[in-house]
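Why DUF2177 family protein? Reviewers of the renewal asked for a concrete example.
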Amino acid sequence: MQILILYVVTAVVFLVVDAVMLTKVIRPVFETHLGDQLRDSPRLAAAALFYLFYVVGLLVFVSLPALRADAPVQALLMGALLGAVAYGTYEFTSFAVMKNWHWQMVLLDTTWGTLLTGGSAYIGVLVTRAVTQTG
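Here is what the prediction returned.
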C-alpha cells in the first residue's frame, strides 16, 4: 500500500504542477523559438507513457530509497539530480542536433526538470510518511 500511495502522490504532484508550468511558461518560450514546428496539442499517449515511466524511475531510484531511509531531503536532492540528468540529456541533445533549439530553452527546461523532479519526490515521500506512519 505504501508504494501505491507514494506513486499516486508523486504522479499527481508531478502532473498538476508540470501542466501549469508547461502551459504558462515553457510553451510560450518554445513557441518563440520553434514557432509552427510545435504541435497545437501534445500527443497524449506519448505524454502519458512518459509520465507513467518517469515516475516509476523516480520511485525506484530516488523515492523508495529515501522513504526506507526516512530521509525526505535525500529524495529532494537525489530527485533534483535525476531531473537534471534526464531533462538535461534531452535538452542538450536537442540543442546539439536541432537547428532552432535555443539556449533559453535548454536552461529553462533543464532547470524546471530539476526542480519538478526533486520537489515531486520530496512531497511524495513526506505525504507517504505522514499517511503510513503508525504510532
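The helical segments are 2-34, 44-68, 72-97, 103-132. This is the kind of structural detail the renewal will allow us to pursue systematically.
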